[in-house]
Amino acid sequence: MSASHENDSPVNDSTVNDSPEDLTILPATTEPYHIAYEDDVLLVVNKPAHLLTVPGRHPQNQDCLIRRVQREFYNAEVVHRLDYDTSGLVILPLTKRVLSDISKQFQARTVQKHYIAIVAGKVAKARGTIELPIAADEANRPLYKICHATGKPAVTRYQLLSYDSATHQSRVQLEPITGRSHQLRLHMLALGHAILGDTLYATADIAAKSSRLMLHAQYIRFNHPLNGEVLAFSEPAPF
Which residues lie within the region annotated Disordered (predicted)? Predict the structure, then answer.
């Protein structure tokens, strides 16, 4: 996803083989990450926008969240990702056992995540569920598309939080039940409300309304791998 992607299978909020992040030079922000939680076996950090979660294949895309974190926590590993242009909470295991356990929680879809997004237009329904399958767009690799013929099931719950009539923009909370690549971007686009700053899928005028993708992973909830305690963290959207 670019991420996270919005994206959550165990390896990524935007699990991809070839992503725009691999093929394009993406300057890394100087804004630091923030530790939301730390213990002996895992971290939860708040990733800034305009920073890859893992190194890209392009030689100039080596500065990333995990390498910055590993300067202080050398054994930190990645179990899921956020897109380069998405900000928000990321779990980073510090042991192999915890990496395996958190990965299984993602696979079982017991990790709960909420995103905040600013989208174009007024979302008509206060809440709803989008169920539209997503597939790789073979004619426009490495992008993705809604495809009922070859797509994998993808489900997103949404809730309208507010509407600004002056800007004709809506603030929404998004809960990805599945974790397909670019799921939140594509589902909101299909609903008729592209995310502001989305340079991959939105029209040029909507993409130009923000210098960043207006998507933030605000909330994450999971079970501690060692004691089973429910952990929940929230980081307000910076927009």
Answer: 1-23
